[in-house]
Predict the 3D structure of the following.
Amino acid sequence: MALRIAGKDSPLPSSGEEPGTSRKIAQIIRFSSQYLQGKDEALKLALLTFFARGHLLIEDFPGLGKTTVAIAIAKVLGLSFGRIQCTSDLLPTDITGLSIYNKNTGEFEFHPGPIFNNIVLVDEINRATPKTQSALLEAMGEKQTTLEGKTYKLPNPFFVIATQNPVEQFGTFPLPESQMDRFMMKIGIGYPTRGAEKEILRVGSRREELYSIEPMMNREEVLRIQGDIRERVFVSEKILEYILDLVEATRSSKYILAGISTRGMLTITNVAKTNAYFSGRDFVIPEDVKEVTRHTIPHRVIFKEEFESLDKWGIIQAILEQIPVPA
């Protein structure tokens, strides 16, 4: 199901934020799409995850534009950007940074790693060893990192976009369940349409142009929008009960060993609120929840071994369809 983004005729939120904020997000998507041929849906989902204060996992084959999506978001929002290329010999300190002895001062000085940026692209995360992957757990969950007994706060906002190749590829380490649950959404880019690929052949990649574009937002505006979504978008009791019904259905299904966690339940709620905001509303409707279930649920439930080979999204979809939708 495609996400709806408010257009020029869409109603605006009545919560008191600056007029046209949802329209500006729509303008950002339209503007960025010029540089992301055939990746409009991935861009919308990435921005949805970002403004919901979550982290994004993109699983797809190499060469489909995962890195370009991350760069576009950082540049258009005017935020700092860092990239970590994962390999089997990558160390945790290559991500977090480390203290280096300064012989002039006689003291150790902390040199921050690439994790100390607003938007961090962790490319091919499943090529890093489990020990290195674990260096991201505290950063993603607590937005801080602890080194040598000292805790360092990460920038605000802080957003991780991790990419991974299908686990069947050579030299990959599957992410543990605890780390998968820290990703608000898991999406795929997919191959562009024939028309989009023809345009790429005609004009070439436009990634280099992204580095010179003027930001359409700044850090203060981003934080204000995130605050408005959290505090001013209303979720009714009926919607809360509907989300709880979805969660309980996954926990009691005969196909599923471990259903949606409490973190996952909060994720669904936060993404639904952001989806409502993007659509120009200050209240959540059932469609806001239903539109994001494909990307927020399958990666955070564990299926029983005998059902691992089945279509997981098909099973989850069948489970969710049995739950009454509130009027």
About this structure: DSSP finds 15 helices and eleven strands in the chain. Residues 7-19 have pLDDT under 50 and may be disordered. Residues 18-231 form a domain with the Rossmann fold fold (CATH 3.40.50.300). The CA atoms of residues 75 and 215 lie 6 Å apart.
